[in-house]
Amino acid sequence: MGLGFTVASPCGLRGTGGLPGFRKHDRSQLRAPKPRAASIVFMTQSSGPTKAAPAAPSWQDLALKIPNDFLNPDYVNGEAKVTPPWDRDCMRLFGKSEEDIQFVFYRDTSYWCPYCQRVQLYLEEKKVPYRFKKVNLKCYGRQPGWYLKINGSGSLPLLEIGRRYKLESLQIMLKLEKEFPDINPLLPKDGEGKRTVERHLGIEKKLTQRWLRCLRAPDTQQEKVTAELYSTLEEVEALLEEFEGPYFMGESASITDFMYAPFVERQYASLLYWRGIDLFADGAHPNLNKFMQAMRTRQSYIALMSDTY
C-alpha cells in the first residue's frame, strides 16, 4: 500500500492570441464610422403623487442579519474554514485541548497546492487536533531558513510527528490512518477493501499523468492525447459505477475521494481554460460529476476547495 507520487505543476503554459491584422490595401476597415445625428429625449412629468422610496437599511441593521460565526468565525474549534492569510502558525482542536496536539502539518501559504489540500481535507475529516504552519511553495517565493533546516528539499506537504517527518500526501494520509485507525476511519481494514483502494489510486495516477500531457502537448498531438485522457476518464466512470456512488466506495467517503477531488477540480478548470474541454458538458462523465457534487456538500471540502479560475 505505497502508492506515493509527485506530479509537477503545469507551469509555463501560455495561450496564443492577438488582434487579427488588416491587409495593407484594405483601408475601409480603418475608417471611423460616421457620427449619428444627436437624438433628443423629452422628459415628461408624471401626473399624480409619487411613492417615496423605502429607506435604506442601516449598517447596524445589515450586520444583525449576518450570522455571528461568519463575522467572528471560530478558526480553532468551529467548522472547517480557510484561516486568515496573516496566520502563519494555526491550530485546529475540534473541542479538545492544545495538549492533545500530537503533530504539526506544514502546507503552502496560498492554499494552491493540491497535495496539501489532500492532507488537510483528511485531517479535517479525521478531526484529530493538529497544528499547522504555512510555508511558501518554492516556485512562489523564498522559503524560510527554519523550514529548509528540517526539510532541505523545501517540498510540501510535510507532517512532523515528534522529531520524525513524513513527506508525500498519500504517505502522510496512510500514516494518519495508522496512528488513528479508530477515529473516523477512512481506509478499509480488510484486505479486499485495501486492494480496491490501490486499484483506484493507480487509475488516479494515470488520470493525472494524462491530464498534464493533454495540457502540455503541442497541437499536432492533441487528438491522440485527448483520446487517451477520455479513455482514462471512462475507467474512472466504471470505478464509480462499481459501488453505485456517489463516492468511490459507495455511500461513505474514503481515502480515495480525498486523493481524487483536489485534482479533478483542477482538471476541470484547466482543461476548460487551456483546451476548451468541458468535462461535464452535455451530461458527459455523469458519475464523476455526481462525485464532485457530493464532495461539495462536505464542509471540509467547501472550506478548502479552490475557485474555478
Model description:
The protein has 309 residues and is of the alpha+beta class. Helix content is 40%, strand content 8%. It has ten helices and five strands. Strands 1-3-2-4-5 form a five-stranded mixed sheet. A hairpin with a 2-residue loop joins β4 and β5. α3 (114-126) packs parallel to α5 (169-179), α6 (191-216) packs antiparallel against α7 (222-242) and α7 (222-242) crosses α9 (286-295). The longest helix has 26 residues, at 191-216. The radius of gyration is 26 Å and the shape is globular. 25% of the residues are buried.
Cross-sheet strand order for the largest sheet: 1-3-2-4-5
The tally of strands reads: 5
Indicate the percent of residues in helices: 40-55%
Structural class: alpha+beta
Tags for this entry?
309 residues; alpha+beta; five-stranded mixed β-sheet; 8% strand
Summarize the structure.
This protein is α+β, with helices and mostly antiparallel strands and 309 residues long. It is built from ten helices and five strands, in the order H-H-E-E-H-E-H-E-E-H-H-H-H-H-H. It is globular and about 65 Å long.
